[in-house]
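=== RUN LOG ===
request id: a7f3
mode: sequence -> structure
chains: 1
length: 499
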Amino acid sequence: MKKMLWLIALAFLAFQIQGFAQPTNYAVQYTVLDDVNHGPGTQTSSVATIGPDRFVALQAEDPDDNDIFAVVSNYLVGFWDADSVNGRVLSPINGAQALPAYGRGNGQFTSWVSGLDQVQLQGAWQIASGGADNYIYVANNDDFHNILVFNLTETGLVTTDFRMETGSENIFAIEVDDNGYVYVCDYEGNDTKTNEIRIYAGVGAPNTTWGDFGGHQDAPVATVDLPPGKYQGLTVKGDGSQLFVSGVDTSVPLLNGRKIWKFNGSPTSGYTLDNGFSYAMDPSDVNTIGTGTPTVLGLAYMASPPTLVAAVDTILHGSDAGGYSYGRVYTFNPANGAPRDTIDIAQWNFDQTGDYSTGSNNGRVGGFTSVCDVDANAEESTVYTQTYFGWTVEKWNFTGEVSIDPVADVIPTQFELRQNYPNPFNPQTTIEFSVLEANDVALEIYNVLGQSVAVLVNERLGVGTYQVTFDGANLPSGVYIYKLTAGNNQAFKKMLLTK
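=== RESULT ===
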């Protein structure tokens, strides 16, 4: 049996030598096909999920070169129990319930309507979901910069009676926590402002005027001061105890200013900057083929396993085909900002079609990569992204559940990879390992062909013994090899998944 194990390990090494493309922990389940019968219809800037395969796409078409908030069409499209070719439901268009027309320059706008009160979508770039009633929140840029609330149902997307005016500043990013608090972020921050992020008590909270005619002007329950910059991503942990914002710090050169900030606290006690969290894009992380400089855009928080998810791309890079060669989603440890995984969407498109600027491919690729927003669904460990120039939404499945936990009071005496337990397993198992010095550590799962099927650990760890929980629910039964690498040390073991 040991001989067989080493033969499998050698097969794995042969695949490495041949340049086998190592997949990430994610794979596309489906892409909403961009056509008249099902797709969103035009340039897609944001996606918000309310549950598995139930989501809303936001369209923000052809902004003015000098003003991204001046768009020629701005509307919502709802999807219920979607797949590549099913699920689109009625959406409010130009004040009426209809299916959006297909094609550019159609001049369609979603209107929020409550009695005689009406607000048209205008310069909206991002949406969020939250609440028990499948609410969708829009960061709108009408004269009062309203947060507009809609409701996704099985038969259509409808307006509610709820909206909230946020002031005179253009707003971009928006998020809602599990307690209903609504967070909205200005597009630009400077030293004269101290409230770039404003937090509002949620719909139905005591003493709020979300649904009051003549109201809609509540004061924020909390605000957050940000450094000078442009901000296009915002997310929170479900209980509101951790808040993340992404953008460009304009006080430093662009390549050094592409960051994510973390704040700890709550809407009731306020927030303080977490100096233990650190992430800034490396200056070498650029588009080497096309034009434009990628930055950190939309954010999402996945509860299980706890993961911060970020869309990274060049927003509005133009129509040059080279711009589509860069488009990624990065995942991080939300505790400290350590990178975990990369979903290289542009490379996926190229691998599937042989080109960076090719459209849908049997529901497995959106094409024309331009990922400026992302949402996560913890019920199924999935990531939903959009492609702005691809006019579509993509669903990415997480292929292995990861939780890295130190084993308390265990001081290692040797580099060691232990046998997983239970073994055989279905579908979860625990892998324990020890490292003797601080090092870059990788723990990967391979099938018997030597193909990587999951990356459980890919970060720098200190001296210690660690446990990792692996979920093989999305893998077929069979023998798998797990490999631990720490510096120059390597170890292999096998495990058996039975279903």
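=== NOTES ===
Residues 2-17 form the longest helix (16 residues).
The radius of gyration is 23 Å.
=== END ===
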